[in-house]
Structure formats: C-alpha cells, structure tokens
Amino acid sequence: MTTLYTTEEILSSIYLDSENKGQVWCDLIRKLKPALRIITKNDSDYAENEESLIFSFAKDFDILPDPEYVDESDGSAILKHIIDMHKSVLSDNNSIILLDIPTEEAQNISDTYGIICHPFAIVPIVNPLFQEGIEKNVDKDEQPIGWKELFCADCEIPSNSLIFVDRYLFSKEGWITSQDGIDNVYDILNNVLPKSLGVDYHVLIVFDATTLKSTDGDTFQRISTRINTLKKRLSRPYNIIIETLSLDRNTQYYNETHNRRILSNYFLLRVDRSLKAFRENQSLYSQSLWLDWCASKGIVRQTKSDLPAKELRKYLNDIKKAVRQLKAVKGDILFSQNGNSHIPLENISNRLIK
C-alpha cells in the first residue's frame, strides 16, 4: 500500500490548484488511492470543519486523510518528525514524502532511506515516479546489450528492497546454466542497488528448486550460498540481506509465479522469457523486456493506461499470500537468509512483503 506523507497546507494547495500545478498530484492521488498521512498542527480541526479544504478534498476524492499531529509546522520540524518515525515510513515500502523543504534535504532523505522525498516547490513531472518507461526487444545473441540498457545511469530509482520472481532462474537449459542465473542476479543488483544507503537493503529471490539439476551439483543450499557471496563482490558500504525461497507446484500460488519479474519499491520489470537474460553483454534469448515506474504511464504519459503501480501491488500481494501459505505448512520449507537455510520462514525480513 502506498502512503503519501504531506502537510495540510500542501494538500490544500494541491486541491486549490487541481487544474494546473496540482493536477499531476491530484491525478496520482485519484488513481493510486494512497493512504494519506497529513502532518498538521495539534490545534487543526480539518477533519470536522466542513469549510476546510481538506474536508472538501476528502469528500471529492473519497479518501479520509489520517492526521499526524506536530507542535511545529515549519519544514524542518516536520522533516524531523518524519525522520523520528522512519521505521513506520520504511514499513510503507513505497512511501512518498511531499514537503516544503529544500531540494538538498529531500535528496538526503531519499539517499538515506531509499524512498521518494519530493520538494513541493519542484514540478512533479521530474519525480522518478513519472519517468518514462523503457522497453527493449532483443534478439538471441544480440550484442552489445545488458541490464545497464534498462537500469541506465540517468534513471534515478530510489529503492531499499527488491524481489526476483523466476521459477527457472537457476535451471539448466542446454548450454545455459545456473551460473548464468547468478551472474544476471549480480548484474541486476549492481545496477539497481544505490551506491550509499542509511538502512539495510533487502533482496528476496523466489524460484522453484525442483528445476535444479542435482547431477550438476545444483541444490537449493548451494545456490543460496553462491548468491550470498555476491555481497562481497557488490562492495556496498551498507548491509545487504539476501533471502531465497523455493515455490514449487505444491504451493497454492504457484501459478502466480509464471510471469518473470522484478519488484521494487517504485518499479516493476517484466520479461517474456527469463531473467537470466544476458551473458557478457550478449542476449541469451529473443525476448521483450519492460521496465515501468509506478506512474510512468497513466498520468503524465499514456493517460488512458492503468498505473503500473496497480500491477506492482497485485504481484506483491501474490507473493505475500504465497509466503503466508508456506508459513502454515508443516514440514520443511526451502528458505534461506544470507546463505543460512536453518532460519525459519517466520523470520523472513523483506520489507516489500512484511
């Protein structure tokens, strides 16, 4: 569930200017239906005052804002309040913070927590939420091409969590092996993970361990161990928690793992064939790859389209349901955290599905 953190003054301004500067934010709220956390002064009566703009906003948008009271209403005090409640902000895995603060302060929040913090004075269309999506159609053996073509340097992608979903990510297909799956996981992480972060980065890799070739030495434990060793190679200055989980045909939501995809706080990547897509900047398959941010279409572009956030929310819910079902299963569940397969699934930490 997306949560928008803003102030009573900003939301009132958006509502008043819904035909101009505020239109993009209005459209986002109307289509995304986020939870609204309104940071307001202790003596505010907007919820009961029928003459307040927030009361009118709530009525028109059919959204009831949830107040978060503060003693001081200046930008610095509000920012400190949000920082103090950062655990709650982080649990809202795709929070949007919209405040009257300098660009530098907003960027610092984004860099620290891997979430979107936007200065209200800056036009919304420059926000990463509204970046243009990227589509690549590659031929088998095409080169030079790789994950950097999708996660390009000029695309800002705040994130603190990632989920890979691909049943056959580490399966052997002729001359394509589990090592190709591991190499692609590394390349994706190396392109997506921020250079710095003030919190742990969470990675969950969901695949079907029954597709592994034990005759080649590929087991769930061995794959999990090899994936965990990537952290040293990634050489990030913050802690990375990597979890692996097997979903096989006995899992109720197995069918929901058919589509290969990568899920994050604010973006969704889908592929036709496989996430083990490249080897040394050469395509292993002919396939299409799509990268969309939560609002890369549906508001600023392709306004008749659904928001990609709708699909992202569905996929995340499917994974949550699958994990919930597995937690209720009596017997061994193939789950690993940082290469350790003795940790129970109840301890899964990925914040996208918490």
Describe this structure in words.
This protein has an eight-stranded mixed sheet, sandwiched between helices. 42% of the residues are buried. With 354 residues, it is an alpha/beta fold. It contains ten helices and 13 strands. A hairpin with a 2-residue loop joins strand 10 (260-264) and strand 11. The chain has helices at residues 8-16, 23-32, 53-61, 75-84, 86-91, 103-113, 178-192, 220-228, 230-234, 308-327; strands at 3-7, 35-41, 66-70, 96-99, 116-119, 134-138, 161-165, 201-207, 240-246, 260-264, 267-271, 287-293, 335-337. Helix content is 29%, strand content 19%.
Name some characteristics of this structure:
354 residues, alpha/beta, eight-stranded mixed sheet, 13 strands, 29% helix, globular
Basic shape: globular
What is the share of helical residues?
25-40%
Order of helices and strands: EHHEHEHHEHEEEHEHHEEEEHE
Q: Give the termini separation.
A: 11 Å
Gyration radius (Cα, Å) is 22 Å
Class by SSE composition? alpha/beta
Work out the strand percent: 15-25%
Mean pLDDT: 88
Total beta strand runs = 13
**What is the helix tally?**
10
Describe the biggest sheet? 8 strands, mixed
Q: Uncertain runs with pLDDT below 50, 5 residues or more?
A: none
Q: What spatial order of strands do you see in the largest sheet?
A: 6-12-11-10-7-8-9-13
